[in-house]
Write a structure and sequence with these properties.
Blueprint: E1 3-8, E2 26-27, E3 30-31, H1 32-42, E4 48-53, H2 58-64, E5 70-74, H3 79-91, E6 114-117, H4 127-138, E7 143-149, E8 154-157, E9 163-167, E10 173-175, E11 179-182, H5 183-192, H6 200-206, E12 212-215, H7 226-239
Helix pairs in contact: 5-6
The chain binds cytidine-5'-triphosphate and magnesium ion.
Length: 241
């Protein structure tokens, strides 16, 4: 089966506050988006990648990925739009969105069988996690998300911050990326999607389709704040990678 990955990297990184878009912030000398894409390719199960970047960084991204099986496109105003534009390029709907390499390998209409969607902001995601998500899709699941149990107690609060209940955390999971989909399932989810979502599997759930979980990995954490970047730097330094 052909496996493609979409990497939304077009956010501005307001919460990180680094002064440049988060995906282009360097982690021990290597931009976060490069680590995320190379991690996908290192799994050995991903054939091609489409990366959605801010328009101002398109040329820089093309240079970073020269010679790699990567197509760079310009993203949109929210994550959902960025992923949708990449999906259109990958699956042949709107080729005018493509700016480099026009269309990944293969004739029009002959798209990938499996599509992963992976945040650029998860630079330390282990290759083994990528492989396990793909394996779960290839085993017959239409939508697969890596998920971890919650460590903290979770409470519901009112707008003033007053607690009104404690949630049973044993039934809750924090989900990560890469999320994996049979290509037709993801295409249908995006065709039906209206509002912007923080998570691609949420759009599949909205179709009434089954989404299954595989065990997540702490190293697939998302770099959101300066604290997260500091943790990522310590991990990279510890491992000399
Ligand atoms: N993303 C994107 N296009 C957007 C917004 C987000 O491709 N218009 C991507 C980000 O680059 C990131 C992923 O979606 O890899 C997850 O988003 P998030 O962690 O929220 O990143 P940012 O939107 O960049 O950060 P912030 O919300 O703090 O501004
Ligand atoms: Mg954001």
């Amino acid at each position: 089966m052909t496996v493609a990955a979409i990497v939304p990297a077009a956010g501005s990184g307001v919460r990180l506050g680094a002064g440049v878009p988060k995906a282009f912030v360097e982690l021990a000398g290597v931009p976060i988006v490069v680590r995320a894409v190379e991690g996908l390719l290192a799994s050995g199960v991903v054939d091609q990648v489409v990366v959605a970047v801010p328009e101002s960084l398109r040329d820089e991204a093309c240079a970073l990925f020269a010679g790699r099986p990567v197509t760079v496109i310009v993203g949109g105003q929210d994550r959902t739009t960025s992923v949708r534009k990449a999906l259109d390029v990958l699956c042949g709907a709107l080729p005018h969105h493509a700016h480099v390499g026009e269309r990944p390998d293969g004739p029009p209409g002959d798209g990938p069988h499996v599509v992963l969607v992976h945040d650029a902001a998860r630079p330390l995601t282990p290759a083994a996690l990528v492989a396990s998500v793909v394996a779960a899709v290839e085993a017959g699941n239409g939508a697969v998300v890596p998920a971890l149990p919650l460590a903290d107690t979770v409470k519901q609060v009112d707008p003033a911050g007053v607690v009104y209940s404690t949630v049973d955390r044993s039934v809750l999971r924090a989900v990560q990326t890469p999320q994996g989909f049979r290509r037709d399932v993801l295409e249908r989810a995006y065709a039906a999607a209206g509002e912007s979502a923080t998570d691609d599997a949420g759009l599949v759930e909205a179709l009434g389709e089954v989404v299954v979980t595989v065990p997540g990995d702490a190293r697939a954490f998302k770099v959101t704040t300066a604290w997260d970047l500091r943790i990522a730097e310590l991990l990279v330094r510890e491992e000399g990678s």
